[in-house]
Amino acid sequence: MTARITKDTKLCMSLSGRPGNFGTRFHNFLYDELELDFVYKAFTTRDLKSAVAGIRALGIRGCAVSMPFKEACLELVDEVEPSAAAIQSLNTIVNTDGHLKAYNTDYIAVSRLIEQHRVSPATPLALRGSGGMAKAVACALRDAGFRSGQIVARNAQKGQELAQATGFEWCAELGSSRPALLVNVTPIGMSGGAEAGDLAFDLDAIMAAEVVFDVVAVPPETPLIRTAREYGKRVITGAEVIALQAVEQFVLYTGVRPSADQIARAAAFASG
Asked: Which of the following is catalytic: 10, 41, 70, 135?
């Protein structure tokens, strides 16, 4: 790849509180596979406003946005696509001649995964989290027809706002409730964090569940997913989410949609 980088090579990037390698490996694999003159690099920042201004000023084609920047970036772009506007959270910025447009491909990915895994909308759920990604997941569940659910969030204001927006209930802790679908949309279980070895839900709740969904992608087998597998539960992993949303970002950046085989090989390479 580096041998053919030129002044005309287009740069795409990511902004995350805890940068990982998945996006970098996934996108660069497909750039090579499809012989596209692009390169992808992951970044973090302590100056979000300047970082987004740099996307515009330097002609960076696209930027993936992860926690904790998904909501704060909204006021820094020029246009917000409906899926991002509806949940007031973005995960993708596309730069077209200095015009920054925001999208949310997390929503698309979650919607497709719920359908692919055939999770019935009649399934009662508990979703832990209240940030930007939690909004995307909760809205995707709502729009898929889920009606019985709890938003579990210690931040009462954000939790209640999300519950009201989606028609679910809010609670600070799950308590004795035992829903059939558990969804973690917090950093609990994420590599490198203070809670990397923790479970997002207690063991009793996991044992009572039918399906466990963890959006944390690093590591691919979080403590929650590993425990759910041990008890024979159906699982949806963060690795699946990140691959699907990354495909949609790739298409937005390049205008090219890879084949299913290329996507599978890119995801396997990025997870390796």
From this structure: 70
